[in-house]
Amino acid sequence: MGILERKIRQKENMRTNILAVAMQLVKEEGWQSLSIRKIADAIEYSVPVIYDHFENKEAILFELSMDGFRLLDRLLEKDKRKYADPEERLRAHAETYWNFAFKNPEYYQLMYGLGMPCSSPGKAKPEFNSFREHIAEAIEGIVKDNKSSEDETCFKIYAFWSVLHGLISIVMMRCSDIDDSQMNKKVMDDSVNAFIKNL
Amino acid sequence: MGILERKIRQKENMRTNILAVAMQLVKEEGWQSLSIRKIADAIEYSVPVIYDHFENKEAILFELSMDGFRLLDRLLEKDKRKYADPEERLRAHAETYWNFAFKNPEYYQLMYGLGMPCSSPGKAKPEFNSFREHIAEAIEGIVKDNKSSEDETCFKIYAFWSVLHGLISIVMMRCSDIDDSQMNKKVMDDSVNAFIKNL
DNA sequence: TACCTTTGCTAACATCGTTAGGTAAATCTT
DNA sequence: AAGATTTACCTAACGATGTTAGCAAAGGTA
Protein backbone atom coordinates (compact mmCIF):
# COMPACT_ATOMS: atom_id res chain seq x y z
CA MET A 1 0.00 0.00 0.00
CA GLY A 2 1.17 3.49 -0.87
CA ILE A 3 0.17 5.13 2.37
CA LEU A 4 3.64 4.91 3.83
CA GLU A 5 5.12 6.30 0.63
CA ARG A 6 2.70 9.18 0.67
CA LYS A 7 3.61 9.92 4.27
CA ILE A 8 7.28 9.87 3.52
CA ARG A 9 6.64 12.09 0.54
CA GLN A 10 4.63 14.48 2.67
CA LYS A 11 7.31 14.56 5.32
CA GLU A 12 9.92 15.30 2.73
CA ASN A 13 7.72 17.94 1.19
CA MET A 14 7.35 19.63 4.54
CA ARG A 15 11.10 19.54 5.05
CA THR A 16 11.93 21.08 1.69
CA ASN A 17 9.10 23.53 2.17
CA ILE A 18 10.59 24.69 5.46
CA LEU A 19 13.94 25.19 3.80
CA ALA A 20 12.45 26.98 0.82
CA VAL A 21 10.39 29.28 2.99
CA ALA A 22 13.34 30.00 5.25
CA MET A 23 15.48 30.93 2.26
CA GLN A 24 12.68 33.08 0.92
CA LEU A 25 12.42 34.94 4.22
CA VAL A 26 16.16 35.42 4.31
CA LYS A 27 16.18 36.91 0.83
CA GLU A 28 13.43 39.30 1.85
CA GLU A 29 14.62 40.37 5.29
CA GLY A 30 18.15 39.08 5.81
CA TRP A 31 19.58 36.49 8.14
CA GLN A 32 19.32 38.59 11.25
CA SER A 33 15.55 38.57 11.26
CA LEU A 34 14.94 34.93 10.40
CA SER A 35 13.09 33.22 13.23
CA ILE A 36 11.45 29.88 13.78
CA ARG A 37 8.15 31.58 14.40
CA LYS A 38 8.28 33.39 11.08
CA ILE A 39 9.00 30.13 9.31
CA ALA A 40 6.09 28.52 11.12
CA ASP A 41 3.80 31.37 10.10
CA ALA A 42 4.93 31.11 6.49
CA ILE A 43 4.33 27.37 6.21
CA GLU A 44 1.05 27.78 8.07
CA TYR A 45 1.90 25.33 10.81
CA SER A 46 2.61 25.78 14.46
CA VAL A 47 6.13 26.18 15.78
CA PRO A 48 6.84 22.69 17.14
CA VAL A 49 6.21 21.11 13.76
CA ILE A 50 9.49 22.55 12.60
CA TYR A 51 11.28 20.63 15.32
CA ASP A 52 9.86 17.39 13.92
CA HIS A 53 11.98 18.01 10.86
CA PHE A 54 15.04 19.82 12.19
CA GLU A 55 16.82 19.46 15.47
CA ASN A 56 17.18 23.19 15.89
CA LYS A 57 17.59 26.44 14.04
CA GLU A 58 21.25 25.83 13.41
CA ALA A 59 20.40 22.62 11.59
CA ILE A 60 18.23 24.62 9.21
CA LEU A 61 21.00 27.11 8.58
CA PHE A 62 23.42 24.26 8.11
CA GLU A 63 21.20 22.61 5.53
CA LEU A 64 20.81 25.89 3.69
CA SER A 65 24.55 26.39 3.64
CA MET A 66 24.88 22.92 2.15
CA ASP A 67 22.48 23.98 -0.56
CA GLY A 68 24.80 26.89 -1.19
CA PHE A 69 27.84 24.64 -1.46
CA ARG A 70 25.98 22.29 -3.76
CA LEU A 71 24.88 25.12 -6.02
CA LEU A 72 28.40 26.50 -6.24
CA ASP A 73 29.75 23.04 -6.91
CA ARG A 74 27.37 22.54 -9.81
CA LEU A 75 28.57 25.76 -11.40
CA LEU A 76 32.20 24.80 -10.96
CA GLU A 77 31.55 21.40 -12.52
CA LYS A 78 30.11 23.17 -15.52
CA ASP A 79 33.33 25.16 -15.86
CA LYS A 80 35.26 21.95 -15.68
CA ARG A 81 33.35 20.42 -18.54
CA LYS A 82 33.60 23.57 -20.60
CA TYR A 83 37.30 24.34 -20.23
CA ALA A 84 39.96 21.71 -20.69
CA ASP A 85 42.87 24.12 -20.55
CA PRO A 86 43.74 24.58 -16.87
CA GLU A 87 44.46 28.29 -17.18
CA GLU A 88 41.19 29.04 -18.88
CA ARG A 89 39.46 26.86 -16.36
CA LEU A 90 41.04 28.66 -13.44
CA ARG A 91 39.88 31.99 -14.82
CA ALA A 92 36.42 30.59 -15.29
CA HIS A 93 36.38 29.30 -11.71
CA ALA A 94 37.34 32.71 -10.39
CA GLU A 95 34.60 34.35 -12.41
CA THR A 96 32.09 31.73 -11.33
CA TYR A 97 33.01 32.11 -7.67
CA TRP A 98 32.73 35.87 -7.87
CA ASN A 99 29.39 35.80 -9.65
CA PHE A 100 28.03 33.21 -7.29
CA ALA A 101 28.89 35.40 -4.32
CA PHE A 102 27.16 38.48 -5.63
CA LYS A 103 24.18 36.75 -7.18
CA ASN A 104 23.59 34.81 -3.97
CA PRO A 105 24.97 37.00 -1.20
CA GLU A 106 22.77 35.28 1.37
CA TYR A 107 24.28 31.93 0.54
CA TYR A 108 27.79 33.31 0.51
CA GLN A 109 27.34 35.01 3.86
CA LEU A 110 26.00 31.86 5.41
CA MET A 111 28.66 29.60 3.90
CA TYR A 112 31.53 31.70 5.11
CA GLY A 113 30.03 33.37 8.16
CA LEU A 114 30.05 36.94 6.93
CA GLY A 115 28.28 39.25 9.34
CA MET A 116 26.26 36.58 11.08
CA PRO A 117 26.50 33.97 13.77
CA CYS A 118 28.34 31.34 11.83
CA SER A 119 26.52 28.10 11.27
CA SER A 120 28.71 25.88 9.21
CA PRO A 121 32.40 26.78 9.46
CA GLY A 122 34.41 23.79 10.48
CA LYS A 123 31.60 21.35 9.81
CA ALA A 124 30.45 21.37 6.21
CA LYS A 125 33.94 21.75 4.90
CA PRO A 126 35.45 18.40 4.09
CA GLU A 127 32.64 17.09 1.93
CA PHE A 128 31.15 20.24 0.58
CA ASN A 129 33.61 23.01 0.22
CA SER A 130 34.74 21.80 -3.14
CA PHE A 131 35.96 25.16 -4.37
CA ARG A 132 39.42 24.51 -3.03
CA GLU A 133 39.59 21.19 -4.81
CA HIS A 134 38.43 22.67 -8.06
CA ILE A 135 41.01 25.42 -8.13
CA ALA A 136 43.62 22.99 -6.83
CA GLU A 137 43.07 20.83 -9.87
CA ALA A 138 43.38 23.74 -12.25
CA ILE A 139 46.44 25.17 -10.56
CA GLU A 140 48.15 21.81 -10.47
CA GLY A 141 47.41 21.51 -14.15
CA ILE A 142 49.17 24.78 -14.78
CA VAL A 143 52.25 24.20 -12.66
CA LYS A 144 52.72 20.52 -13.36
CA ASP A 145 55.65 21.24 -15.72
CA ASN A 146 57.38 23.47 -13.17
CA LYS A 147 59.66 22.32 -10.47
CA SER A 148 57.30 23.61 -7.75
CA SER A 149 57.21 21.60 -4.56
CA GLU A 150 53.99 20.22 -3.18
CA ASP A 151 54.02 22.76 -0.39
CA GLU A 152 54.46 25.64 -2.79
CA THR A 153 51.52 24.45 -4.83
CA CYS A 154 49.39 24.16 -1.73
CA PHE A 155 50.33 27.70 -0.77
CA LYS A 156 49.36 28.96 -4.19
CA ILE A 157 45.96 27.38 -3.87
CA TYR A 158 45.23 29.17 -0.63
CA ALA A 159 46.72 32.38 -1.95
CA PHE A 160 44.37 32.27 -4.91
CA TRP A 161 41.35 31.50 -2.82
CA SER A 162 42.32 34.22 -0.37
CA VAL A 163 42.36 37.03 -2.90
CA LEU A 164 38.93 36.06 -4.11
CA HIS A 165 37.38 35.53 -0.71
CA GLY A 166 39.09 38.55 0.77
CA LEU A 167 37.95 40.87 -1.95
CA ILE A 168 34.43 39.51 -1.92
CA SER A 169 34.27 39.93 1.85
CA ILE A 170 35.60 43.45 1.79
CA VAL A 171 33.19 44.49 -0.92
CA MET A 172 30.23 42.64 0.53
CA MET A 173 30.75 44.10 4.00
CA ARG A 174 31.20 47.56 2.55
CA CYS A 175 34.71 47.91 3.92
CA SER A 176 35.80 49.02 0.47
CA ASP A 177 35.10 52.54 -0.70
CA ILE A 178 34.83 51.39 -4.30
CA ASP A 179 31.13 51.09 -4.92
CA ASP A 180 31.27 50.48 -8.63
CA SER A 181 30.81 46.77 -9.18
CA GLN A 182 32.63 46.90 -12.52
CA MET A 183 35.61 48.39 -10.75
CA ASN A 184 35.55 45.75 -8.07
CA LYS A 185 35.48 43.03 -10.66
CA LYS A 186 38.46 44.64 -12.36
CA VAL A 187 40.41 44.41 -9.12
CA MET A 188 39.66 40.72 -9.11
CA ASP A 189 40.62 40.28 -12.75
CA ASP A 190 43.86 42.15 -12.12
CA SER A 191 44.67 39.95 -9.17
CA VAL A 192 43.84 36.78 -11.07
CA ASN A 193 46.03 37.87 -13.95
CA ALA A 194 48.94 38.73 -11.69
CA PHE A 195 48.51 35.45 -9.89
CA ILE A 196 48.52 33.35 -13.04
CA LYS A 197 51.46 35.22 -14.51
CA ASN A 198 53.38 34.39 -11.35
CA LEU A 199 52.66 30.70 -11.34
CA MET B 1 33.84 72.98 43.54
CA GLY B 2 35.00 69.71 41.98
CA ILE B 3 31.76 67.89 42.43
CA LEU B 4 30.77 68.23 38.80
CA GLU B 5 34.19 67.08 37.69
CA ARG B 6 33.98 64.09 39.99
CA LYS B 7 30.60 63.22 38.55
CA ILE B 8 31.82 63.51 35.00
CA ARG B 9 34.81 61.44 35.95
CA GLN B 10 32.56 58.84 37.54
CA LYS B 11 30.31 58.78 34.50
CA GLU B 12 33.29 58.30 32.24
CA ASN B 13 34.62 55.63 34.53
CA MET B 14 31.37 53.77 34.35
CA ARG B 15 31.43 53.99 30.58
CA THR B 16 34.94 52.66 30.21
CA ASN B 17 34.20 50.08 32.85
CA ILE B 18 31.26 48.80 30.84
CA LEU B 19 33.44 48.54 27.76
CA ALA B 20 36.25 46.84 29.64
CA VAL B 21 33.94 44.35 31.27
CA ALA B 22 32.21 43.64 27.99
CA MET B 23 35.56 42.97 26.30
CA GLN B 24 36.58 40.77 29.21
CA LEU B 25 33.40 38.72 28.89
CA VAL B 26 33.91 38.40 25.17
CA LYS B 27 37.42 37.10 25.63
CA GLU B 28 36.14 34.55 28.11
CA GLU B 29 33.00 33.34 26.37
CA GLY B 30 32.94 34.74 22.84
CA TRP B 31 30.72 37.27 21.16
CA GLN B 32 27.73 34.99 20.85
CA SER B 33 27.15 34.83 24.57
CA LEU B 34 27.66 38.49 25.43
CA SER B 35 24.50 39.96 26.88
CA ILE B 36 23.49 43.20 28.52
CA ARG B 37 22.49 41.33 31.64
CA LYS B 38 25.90 39.72 31.96
CA ILE B 39 27.54 43.09 31.63
CA ALA B 40 25.22 44.50 34.28
CA ASP B 41 26.07 41.62 36.59
CA ALA B 42 29.77 42.12 36.05
CA ILE B 43 29.73 45.85 36.80
CA GLU B 44 27.41 45.17 39.74
CA TYR B 45 24.70 47.50 38.56
CA SER B 46 21.21 46.89 37.27
CA VAL B 47 20.49 46.56 33.59
CA PRO B 48 19.03 50.00 32.77
CA VAL B 49 22.17 51.74 34.00
CA ILE B 50 23.91 50.51 30.89
CA TYR B 51 21.38 52.34 28.76
CA ASP B 52 22.34 55.59 30.46
CA HIS B 53 25.73 55.23 28.85
CA PHE B 54 25.01 53.49 25.56
CA GLU B 55 22.03 53.74 23.29
CA ASN B 56 21.90 50.01 22.78
CA LYS B 57 23.98 46.88 22.54
CA GLU B 58 25.12 47.67 19.04
CA ALA B 59 26.58 50.93 20.28
CA ILE B 60 28.73 48.98 22.73
CA LEU B 61 29.93 46.64 20.00
CA PHE B 62 30.58 49.62 17.79
CA GLU B 63 32.67 51.30 20.44
CA LEU B 64 34.64 48.12 21.00
CA SER B 65 35.29 47.79 17.30
CA MET B 66 36.60 51.34 17.34
CA ASP B 67 38.98 50.30 20.09
CA GLY B 68 40.13 47.55 17.78
CA PHE B 69 40.72 49.95 14.91
CA ARG B 70 42.56 52.32 17.20
CA LEU B 71 44.80 49.56 18.51
CA LEU B 72 45.61 48.38 15.01
CA ASP B 73 46.28 51.94 13.95
CA ARG B 74 48.75 52.45 16.75
CA LEU B 75 50.68 49.38 15.68
CA LEU B 76 50.75 50.51 12.07
CA GLU B 77 51.97 53.94 13.10
CA LYS B 78 54.81 52.24 14.90
CA ASP B 79 55.75 50.47 11.68
CA LYS B 80 55.68 53.76 9.89
CA ARG B 81 58.14 55.33 12.28
CA LYS B 82 60.37 52.29 12.20
CA TYR B 83 60.60 51.72 8.46
CA ALA B 84 61.29 54.52 6.02
CA ASP B 85 61.75 52.27 3.01
CA PRO B 86 58.29 51.67 1.56
CA GLU B 87 58.90 48.03 0.72
CA GLU B 88 60.13 47.18 4.20
CA ARG B 89 57.24 49.14 5.62
CA LEU B 90 54.71 47.28 3.52
CA ARG B 91 56.10 43.97 4.70
CA ALA B 92 55.96 45.18 8.27
CA HIS B 93 52.36 46.31 7.83
CA ALA B 94 51.40 42.89 6.54
CA GLU B 95 53.08 41.19 9.47
CA THR B 96 51.48 43.61 11.91
CA TYR B 97 48.05 43.11 10.42
CA TRP B 98 48.42 39.35 10.56
CA ASN B 99 49.67 39.32 14.12
CA PHE B 100 46.99 41.72 15.24
CA ALA B 101 44.32 39.43 13.84
CA PHE B 102 45.54 36.33 15.61
CA LYS B 103 46.51 37.97 18.86
CA ASN B 104 43.15 39.71 19.06
CA PRO B 105 40.75 37.47 17.18
CA GLU B 106 37.78 38.95 19.04
CA TYR B 107 38.62 42.42 17.81
CA TYR B 108 39.27 41.22 14.30
CA GLN B 109 36.00 39.32 14.17
CA LEU B 110 34.08 42.33 15.38
CA MET B 111 35.84 44.78 13.09
CA TYR B 112 35.18 42.78 9.96
CA GLY B 113 32.06 40.88 10.93
CA LEU B 114 33.48 37.38 10.94
CA GLY B 115 30.96 34.87 12.22
CA MET B 116 28.80 37.33 14.09
CA PRO B 117 26.05 39.84 13.54
CA CYS B 118 28.09 42.65 12.13
CA SER B 119 28.17 45.83 14.12
CA SER B 120 30.38 48.26 12.35
CA PRO B 121 30.69 47.55 8.65
CA GLY B 122 29.84 50.57 6.63
CA LYS B 123 29.95 52.90 9.60
CA ALA B 124 33.33 52.96 11.31
CA LYS B 125 35.18 52.84 8.03
CA PRO B 126 35.99 56.31 6.82
CA GLU B 127 37.63 57.56 9.95
CA PHE B 128 38.94 54.44 11.51
CA ASN B 129 39.82 51.80 9.02
CA SER B 130 43.25 53.25 8.50
CA PHE B 131 44.81 50.03 7.33
CA ARG B 132 43.97 50.79 3.73
CA GLU B 133 45.55 54.20 3.99
CA HIS B 134 48.67 52.83 5.56
CA ILE B 135 49.29 50.23 2.91
CA ALA B 136 48.25 52.73 0.25
CA GLU B 137 51.04 55.02 1.35
CA ALA B 138 53.59 52.24 1.28
CA ILE B 139 52.47 50.90 -2.07
CA GLU B 140 52.44 54.35 -3.64
CA GLY B 141 55.94 54.80 -2.31
CA ILE B 142 57.02 51.66 -4.12
CA VAL B 143 55.34 52.31 -7.45
CA LYS B 144 55.89 56.05 -7.65
CA ASP B 145 58.69 55.61 -10.21
CA ASN B 146 56.56 53.36 -12.39
CA LYS B 147 54.15 54.51 -14.99
CA SER B 148 51.19 52.94 -13.15
CA SER B 149 47.92 54.77 -13.43
CA GLU B 150 46.01 55.90 -10.40
CA ASP B 151 43.40 53.23 -10.97
CA GLU B 152 45.99 50.50 -11.19
CA THR B 153 47.52 51.61 -7.92
CA CYS B 154 44.13 51.64 -6.26
CA PHE B 155 43.52 48.12 -7.52
CA LYS B 156 46.84 46.97 -6.09
CA ILE B 157 45.92 48.33 -2.70
CA TYR B 158 42.72 46.35 -2.56
CA ALA B 159 44.44 43.32 -4.00
CA PHE B 160 47.00 43.43 -1.21
CA TRP B 161 44.44 43.94 1.50
CA SER B 162 42.34 41.15 0.03
CA VAL B 163 44.99 38.48 0.24
CA LEU B 164 45.63 39.31 3.86
CA HIS B 165 42.03 39.59 4.91
CA GLY B 166 40.98 36.59 2.84
CA LEU B 167 43.64 34.35 4.27
CA ILE B 168 43.01 35.50 7.81
CA SER B 169 39.29 34.90 7.38
CA ILE B 170 39.74 31.47 5.90
CA VAL B 171 42.11 30.42 8.64
CA MET B 172 40.14 32.02 11.45
CA MET B 173 36.87 30.46 10.34
CA ARG B 174 38.58 27.10 9.93
CA CYS B 175 37.74 26.87 6.26
CA SER B 176 41.36 25.99 5.63
CA ASP B 177 42.62 22.52 6.32
CA ILE B 178 46.06 23.81 7.17
CA ASP B 179 46.11 23.95 10.93
CA ASP B 180 49.78 24.72 11.39
CA SER B 181 50.05 28.42 12.11
CA GLN B 182 53.62 28.54 10.81
CA MET B 183 52.40 27.14 7.53
CA ASN B 184 49.60 29.64 7.31
CA LYS B 185 51.98 32.48 7.89
CA LYS B 186 54.20 31.12 5.13
CA VAL B 187 51.27 31.30 2.74
CA MET B 188 50.94 34.94 3.64
CA ASP B 189 54.66 35.61 3.27
CA ASP B 190 54.62 33.91 -0.10
CA SER B 191 51.71 36.01 -1.24
CA VAL B 192 53.27 39.21 0.01
CA ASN B 193 56.50 38.39 -1.77
CA ALA B 194 54.74 37.59 -5.02
CA PHE B 195 52.72 40.76 -4.72
CA ILE B 196 55.71 42.99 -4.15
CA LYS B 197 57.70 41.37 -6.92
CA ASN B 198 54.81 42.14 -9.25
CA LEU B 199 54.50 45.79 -8.36
C1' DT C 1 12.42 72.74 55.28
C1' DA C 2 10.69 72.28 50.58
C1' DC C 3 12.04 71.41 45.90
C1' DC C 4 14.33 69.34 42.09
C1' DT C 5 17.73 66.75 39.63
C1' DT C 6 20.35 62.84 39.46
C1' DT C 7 20.96 57.88 40.14
C1' DG C 8 19.58 53.67 40.42
C1' DC C 9 16.22 50.02 40.78
C1' DT C 10 12.09 46.83 40.00
C1' DA C 11 9.16 45.14 36.86
C1' DA C 12 7.46 44.77 32.74
C1' DC C 13 7.14 44.13 27.26
C1' DA C 14 8.10 41.85 23.12
C1' DT C 15 10.79 38.64 20.94
C1' DC C 16 13.63 34.73 20.66
C1' DG C 17 14.82 29.25 20.62
C1' DT C 18 13.05 25.27 22.59
C1' DT C 19 10.09 21.75 24.82
C1' DA C 20 6.37 19.46 27.70
C1' DG C 21 1.99 17.78 27.41
C1' DG C 22 -2.41 17.31 25.59
C1' DT C 23 -6.08 16.51 21.78
C1' DA C 24 -7.98 14.93 17.80
C1' DA C 25 -7.46 12.66 13.66
C1' DA C 26 -5.57 8.93 10.97
C1' DT C 27 -4.22 4.38 10.85
C1' DC C 28 -3.79 -0.41 12.25
C1' DT C 29 -5.73 -4.59 14.55
C1' DT C 30 -9.18 -7.77 15.45
C1' DA D 1 -17.17 -1.87 12.32
C1' DA D 2 -15.10 -0.99 16.98
C1' DG D 3 -11.41 -0.52 19.81
C1' DA D 4 -6.45 0.31 20.31
C1' DT D 5 -2.55 2.75 18.88
C1' DT D 6 0.15 5.53 16.61
C1' DT D 7 0.74 9.89 14.31
C1' DA D 8 0.05 14.89 13.46
C1' DC D 9 -0.54 18.88 15.35
C1' DC D 10 -1.46 22.53 18.69
C1' DT D 11 -1.55 25.40 23.01
C1' DA D 12 1.05 27.01 26.49
C1' DA D 13 4.79 27.41 28.80
C1' DC D 14 10.14 28.08 30.18
C1' DG D 15 14.14 30.65 30.14
C1' DA D 16 16.83 34.06 27.88
C1' DT D 17 17.26 38.00 25.10
C1' DG D 18 17.22 43.57 24.12
C1' DT D 19 14.79 47.44 25.68
C1' DT D 20 11.91 50.75 28.33
C1' DA D 21 8.45 52.85 31.66
C1' DG D 22 7.98 54.35 36.01
C1' DC D 23 9.15 54.76 40.63
C1' DA D 24 12.14 55.42 44.92
C1' DA D 25 15.88 57.23 47.19
C1' DA D 26 19.82 60.24 47.50
C1' DG D 27 21.93 64.53 47.16
C1' DG D 28 22.30 69.27 46.05
C1' DT D 29 19.72 73.95 45.87
C1' DA D 30 16.46 77.50 47.45
TrEMBL record, chains A, B:
Name recorded for this polypeptide: AcrR family transcriptional regulator
Which Pfam family, just one, is annotated for this protein?
A: TetR_C_33
Q: Which InterPro entries match?
A: Homeodomain-like_sf (IPR009057), HTH-type_Tx_Regulator (IPR050624), HTH_TetR (IPR001647), MT1864/Rv1816-like_C (IPR025996), Tet_transcr_reg_TetR-rel_C_sf (IPR036271)
Residues in the DNA-binding region are: 35-54
Keyword Ubl conjugation recorded: no
Q: Where does the HTH tetR-type domain start and stop, copy by copy?
A: 12-72
Top-rank lineage group of the source organism: Bacteria
What does the UniProt keyword field contain?
DNA-binding, Transcription, Transcription regulation
